[in-house]
């Protein structure tokens, strides 16, 4: 398994010097693989030119590899004025910029839910995701579906419906363990068994329900059973990315350090040591 993290998960710093701090902290923990989400203070791909330049140049100084981009694709509902913008301009710009840094994996969400939705709208959701997957494939990209509460890809069962409905070879799944627990509030095992053949990336985060809402916590202190997730992935021979999403509430620098220490204690493999 490949240890990875996200550009805004290591430290809350969003300043013009943030990448030096992010990469110093990450490499000290043995992490050189990154997913791009925030580029300093703005989300990919609508970023400032100078910040984009720093993302590229500072990565070179630290030997950082970018493996995926997460533009917030389809964080809009079917009835939004923005849904067409997501399927055209945001998708196209994301692919264009990803190519500039030799990234061939794009993460998407499953389109947000709306009170205006009807159950048969899932066919429109499948069509939009399938069309996006086809555009991505035409340019040599994989498109990976990330589960998130409030979307058509919220539970394991709903993710499976979308993955099977789209049915493209370049359309895979990001197993976001914390988001799935937030939606289902049950142990991960049932949904994992349903989805494991689709998994191409894993987002690890821990948390608990406190006063009726999900609160993100350092690894090993929450309810999502990260230890069990690692055991399940190892048993099934998973060799992809383990993307550490460590930020808590409030987000502190030690979140990443302590969560990485817990994760390495689970992996117990010298190649993951800093």
Give the structure's gist in a few sentences.
With 274 residues, this protein is of the alpha/beta class. The protein has nine helices and twelve strands.
- Unreliable runs: 270-274
Widest sheet: strand order? 1-2-5-6-7-8-9-12
- Overall number of structural domains: 1
- What coarse outline follows from CA principal-axis ratios? globular
Which percent band covers the strand fraction? 15-25%
CATH architecture: Alpha-Beta Barrel
Radius of gyration: 18 Å
Order of helices and strands: EHEEEHEHEHEHEHHEEEHEH
CATH class: Alpha Beta
Average pLDDT, all residues:
96
Helix content: 40-55%
- CATH-derived topology: TIM Barrel
Number of strands: 12
- Assign the structural class, choosing from mainly alpha, mainly beta, alpha/beta, alpha+beta, or little secondary structure: alpha/beta
Structure overview:
α1 runs parallel beside α2 and α5 runs parallel beside α7 (189-195). It is globular and about 50 Å long. 41% of the residues lie in helices and 21% in strands. The protein has a single domain (2-267), classed as TIM Barrel. It is an alpha/beta fold and 274 residues long. The model is unreliable at 270-274 (pLDDT under 50). The protein is built from nine helices and twelve strands. An eight-stranded parallel barrel has the order 1-2-5-6-7-8-9-12, surrounded by five helices. A two-stranded antiparallel ribbon has the order 3-4. Strands 10-11 form a two-stranded antiparallel sheet. β5 (65-73), α3 and β6 form a beta-alpha-beta unit.
